[in-house]
Amino acid sequence: MAVADRLQSQARASPRRVTAVVSLVGYVLVFGTFGGVFPFPSISNETVILLSDAIAVVNTAALTAIVAGVYFIRTDQVRKHRAAMLSAFGLIVLFLAMYLLKVGGGFEKAILVEGPVYYAYLVMLAIHILLSAISVPVVVHAVVLGLSHTPDELRQTAHAKVGRIAVAAWGLSLFLGIVTYVMLNHIYMWEPRGEAALLLAIVGPKLRR
Questions:
Q1: What is the mean pLDDT of the chain?
Q2: For the whole model, what pTM was predicted?
Q3: More confidently predicted of 5 and 72
């Protein structure tokens, strides 16, 4: 309890500093995983595909929670708004854990489509990734403020302004992530990227769906 009180006190006194530290940890985990800095246990091809589906479910639930949170705050249901947004944040943390395991221990997929659809997919994927990176500090800052201040105190902070930016960037990123997932896994075919393509050469179409 004392530790929790101390953390809340620090977040209350220096929300930007806490935001910077938490955001930095997130960036280090992601870039370290892509760079092969952090060791991950190898996972089976079936697990990679299962994680892809699970991530899509988690992101859909997170987007639903965000939309609900916006509705609750607009109807002045502060407690429900807080619960919805914290649920969304918790789901994103779960997404991050699953995504890092999939990338670090498995492989990434490349879509098998050409022409305008391919370029539209790349544009949506690029915007999704960019917004995911940009939204980290604003989402974390909104959460830090929300957890360290009372509803009355929040009115004197940048929580509402930061929250609107977070919802816009975070929500659009999630939506585009879901769209690209459907295109990659349920509309068009895919193949593993890089070295994983060699490892999966013997598996064939049965893993593609």
A1: 87
A2: 0.85
A3: 72
Phi-psi category of residue 3: left, alpha or beta, with phi > 0 → left and psi -120 to 50 → alpha: alpha
Q: Give the Å distances, CA to CA, from 92 to 65, 115, 141, 155, 190.
A: 11, 33, 15, 26, 25
* Residue 1 banded pLDDT, cuts 50, 70, 90: low
CA atoms 165, 168, 172, 174: torsion sign: positive
CA distance 208 to 197: 13
For residue 189, name the pLDDT band (cuts at 50, 70, 90): confident
- Residue 112 φ then ψ, to 5°: -105, 85
SS3 36: coil
Cα separation, 194 vs 191, in Å, equals 10
What mean pLDDT comes out for the span 92-101?
A: 94
Q: Which amino acid is at 113?
A: V
What is the phi/psi pair of residue 147, to 5°?
-85, -20
Give me the amino acid identity at 154.
L
State which amino acid sits at residue 85: M
Looking at CATH, the fold of the domain delimited by 15-207 is given as Four Helix Bundle (Hemerythrin (Met), subunit A) (1.20.120)
Q: How much is the pLDDT for 3?
A: 46
Rounded Cα distance between 133 and 173, Å, is: 9
